[in-house]
Amino acid sequence: MNYRHHFHAGNFADVMKHVLLMQLLQQMNAKDKPYRYVDTHAGAGKYNLADAPAQKSGEYLSGIHRLMQLNSKARKEAPEIVQDYLKAVENLRETEGKGVYPGSPWFALDTMREQDVATVFELQSDVYAQLRHNLYDRRLQSHQRDAYEGLLAVIPPKEKRGVVMIDPPYEIERKDFPQLVELIQSAYKKWSTGVFAIWYPIKDRAMIERFEKKMQKTGIRRQLVCEICVWPDDTPVGLNGCGLLVINPPWQFDQHADDALQWLLPHLKMAEGAQAKVKWLVGE
């Protein structure tokens, strides 16, 4: 498997994913009872944007780098969750260097409370070793395991509440993500009250439409689509945008997500015709 997130860390897709992940977990924090965070493809936990992979791709320059260049006035106009996200990155950089960018497990642990627990999977042995080195937390349970079978083994968790982040390497998927749809169906069948957040790339709009139709046919209710496309749909650049499909989102998450994405769009867009939207794929 060739995919390495080190090349893509801190790009616009990471910004979008991590802002919305923090929003989900902050809303989970509103209730006293503990919950579990599950990350199916955890990655290395932290990334140094000064290292060769990030420097080679330069993707972070049109992502987190742009936001870090904003003046204080622009930041104060941002939705609260975006301000929290930027502060979290700054806090990490104050202790570990200005080129560091955190991955999803780090953002989750930073947002979670003491009583909450995280279970994360990473299959690639070298990346898993980096994950173990980068993240030390008594709330964290890490597994070098294939998440396509590991996820089903750990849900439903004893806490009964929780969020599952699914962000697979899409080079193993094909067409309209059939393996992913099958995993979502199996996971939902085991834990119908869990919150599932599925990140996906937008390269071909027709493929995304087929994926959405497949998800509609699953019979799963309360499916929310959040998208940001920094290039127009027909731009042949490889990655025009990305989406986050959220099943069972907390109350009013849709509005918070839309506020965040509409603010992010003008700061992250690469061309006219870029757009962001939040829509219910399937309602109650």
Automatic annotation (TrEMBL):
InterPro entries xref list: RlmJ, SAM-dependent_MTases_sf
Source taxon at top rank: Bacteria
Site (Interaction with substrate rRNA): Y3
One Gene Ontology MF term: 23S rRNA (adenine(2030)-N(6))-methyltransferase activity
SUPFAM superfamilies noted in UniProt: S-adenosyl-L-methionine-dependent methyltransferases
BP terms from Gene Ontology: rRNA base methylation
Residue ranges crossing the lipid bilayer per the database entry: none
Ligand binding (S-adenosyl-L-methionine): H18, H41, S104, E122, D146, A147, D167
UniProt keyword Glycoprotein present: no
EC number per UniProt: 2.1.1.266
Pfam families per record: RsmJ
Function: Specifically methylates the adenine in position 2030 of 23S rRNA.
Annotated catalytic residues: D167
Keywords of this entry: Methyltransferase, RNA-binding, rRNA processing, S-adenosyl-L-methionine, Transferase
Enzyme superclass (EC): transferase
GO cellular component: cytosol
Species of provenance: Acinetobacter marinus
Catalytic activity: adenosine(2030) in 23S rRNA + S-adenosyl-L-methionine = N(6)-methyladenosine(2030) in 23S rRNA + S-adenosyl-L-homocysteine + H(+)
Name of this chain's protein: Ribosomal RNA large subunit methyltransferase J
Record keyword rRNA processing present: yes
Protein family (similarity comment): Belongs to the RlmJ family.
Subunit and partners: Monomer.
